[in-house]
Amino acid sequence: MGRRTGYPVIEVDGALVADTSRSLTGEDTTAGQASPVVAGLGVKRRYLDRANEGDTGSLMAVAPTLAFSAANAATGIASSVLVGPTVGGVIPVAGSPYRYNSSLWQVFGGNNAYTQIKPISTNAQPGQGQVEFWSDADKLEIVLKGGGNTCRVMIDGKLPTFVPQAIPGDGSDYRLLLDFTTAGGAIGRHFSLWGTGLYFRGVQQLSRFGLTVPPRPRGLRCVVAGDSYVSANGAQNDAFSVRMARRLGFSDSVMLGVPSSGYVALGNSVNYGHVTRLADVVQYAPDLVVVYGTINDNNLAGVGVAAAAYFAALRSALPSTVIVVVGPVDHNGASTASLISTVRDPVRVAALAAGFSFVDPLTILTGTGNAGAPNGTGNRDRYLSSDGVHPTTEGHEYIAQRITAEIEPLLQAKFS
């Protein structure tokens, strides 16, 4: 790889990924590894040592059996009992054996004693709900309503599989069995279940085993605001934002993505700076805010002015919060020049003027194909979905890897 002299650079696995003095777009990057640019972070780095981490954490050495039941099937654990969530009001509710994302997540009763878990938000899509509990059962079933989405289970901080569990969309009862008979047996474990717009009915297990709120306190909170890349078109288990937040160590994370929106562009009749969207972010009193995007502002006038106003409002409302601005990922390669002039550059100027750090992932996708029409020209064959706009699951993973590596050093300095 060619290298300029006199400029501080950062390499990962031999590929140049950041030059803290000026943009690297189109300059001195290893073929196929276009480079995100970090402004305001400085050159001090500690690289992530999380190889093979996959989606959100390392895999369990010995995983339990995971299997969904048929629709409306009876329990497969004889003589077991279903322990339902405490329904109604803002959560967590005293006496419930479950802990949810935070006090600003809602539960909704009804739906055959289900509890829907989603963030308190005026605008965002149903968010990445999370339920935690402790159990020492050797077998248990997590009972969910079929909502046509996916969920993941983490056990003592590790994943039994990198593949999310698909929940059918017919509205029936489904039981996700976790069988530890050959994976450690009956010992205490911390379970974390998360997914988008979850309808959670409870945990079924034998009554001789314990079921209670996990003892570990919740840590720092991250809010990610943006467009459909943040919400992954509603499939938030796979969004880069969820993966990024968890890799950065934020088990308490809230995704506030509104499709089609931007600093100027309207989605659901609001843009980033709308008073209700600002309130959605501020109410969570986050330790970290990441603002992403967006291609939705491409070729629109006034993006820099709108971004500056939004950043000023965020800083005024959250004076001690760490705020990082991430520019847009160029989805198809045909809009690079206009995205630079009308979005990336104005947003970067506004972010740095506000004292925020800026990460530029504009050109991390390469080639002219997509997953539906691969042509061998670059990584869009794998990372861009057939709609030509949104990332695939693998694309969200790749974007999360690239952006996480650039945000992590700043958080070390702020939170260590």
The overall strand count is 22
Please give the radius of gyration in angstroms: 22 Å
Mean pLDDT: 79
Percent helix:
10-25%
- Topology pattern, helix = H, strand = E: EEEEEEEEEEEEEEEEEEHHEHEHEHEHH
Q: Biggest β-sheet, characterized? A: 8 strands, antiparallel
Tally of alpha and pi helices: 7
Cα-to-Cα separation, first versus last residue: 34 Å
Low-confidence stretches: 1-56, 87-92
Task: Name the beta content range.
Answer: 25-35%
Structural class: alpha+beta
Shape: globular
Give the arrangement of secondary structure elements.
Blueprint lengths: L8 E4 L2 E5 L17 E3 L25 E4 L12 E3 L6 E2 L7 E2 L4 E4 L6 E5 L8 E8 L3 E7 L4 E6 L9 E2 L6 E7 L9 E8 L2 E7 L5 E2 L8 E6 L1 H4 L8 H8 L4 E6 L17 H8 L5 E5 L10 H15 L4 E5 L9 H18 L3 E4 L19 H4 L9 H23 L1
Parallel strand pairs: 18-19, 18-20, 20-21, 21-22
Antiparallel strand pairs: 1-2, 3-22, 4-14, 5-16, 6-8, 7-10, 8-9, 9-16, 10-15, 10-17, 11-14, 11-16, 12-13, 12-15
Helix pairs in contact: 2-7, 4-5
Describe this structure in words.
With 416 residues, the chain is an alpha+beta fold. It is 19% helix and 25% strand. It has 7 helices and 22 strands. The protein has helices at residues 228-231, 240-247, 275-282, 303-317, 336-353, 380-383, 393-415, and strands at residues 9-12, 15-19, 37-39, 65-68, 81-83, 90-91, 99-100, 105-108, 115-119, 128-135, 139-145, 150-155, 165-166, 173-179, 189-196, 199-205, 211-212, 221-226, 252-257, 288-292, 322-326, 357-360. The strands form 4 sheets. Strands 4, 5, 6, 8, 9, 11, 14 and 16 form an 8-stranded antiparallel beta sheet that branches. A 6-stranded mixed beta sheet has the order 3-22-21-20-18-19, sandwiched between helices. The longest helix is centred in the C-terminal third of the chain and has 23 residues, at 393-415. The model is unreliable at 1-56 and 87-92 (pLDDT under 50).
